[in-house]
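Hi U.,

Before I forget, here's the chain from the pilot set. I'm dumping it here mostly so it's searchable later in email.
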Amino acid sequence: MDRYTYPATLTRDEDDGGFVVTFRDIPEAITQGESLEEALIEAADCLEEAFAGRIHHNDVFPVPSLPEKGEFLVSVPAQTAMKAAMNQAVVEVGISKVELARRLGVDEKEARRILDPKYGTKLPLMERALAVVGKRLVVTVQDAA
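Structure:
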């Protein structure tokens, strides 16, 4: 299973209509949509926001559970997945933003941006940053569910 793809449960909202979306692995991620398609779009956005919050608070990212019957798989956007992986790697290696900047040969401000889930970092710099903490980026493309 992909590292940043989580099973979501869509439950019909009998009172208001539409679907409520929850993630058992990311309990703070709850959203809704009027249709199945809208609910899944909102689910990806909700998951991205939950990841941004976990990054901000230096919280862990749980390994996704295997999907159960009736669940839908939802992935965080690629940029968010890279930021999550980068933040997790920095914690695992035990280095500061200052040390990350030194290893990359960049200003500390740039190192903070690399770790910021709201800042768009160019792919070559993200790959280089992952490399200095002993990681590499691997991309997988799958058919849409």
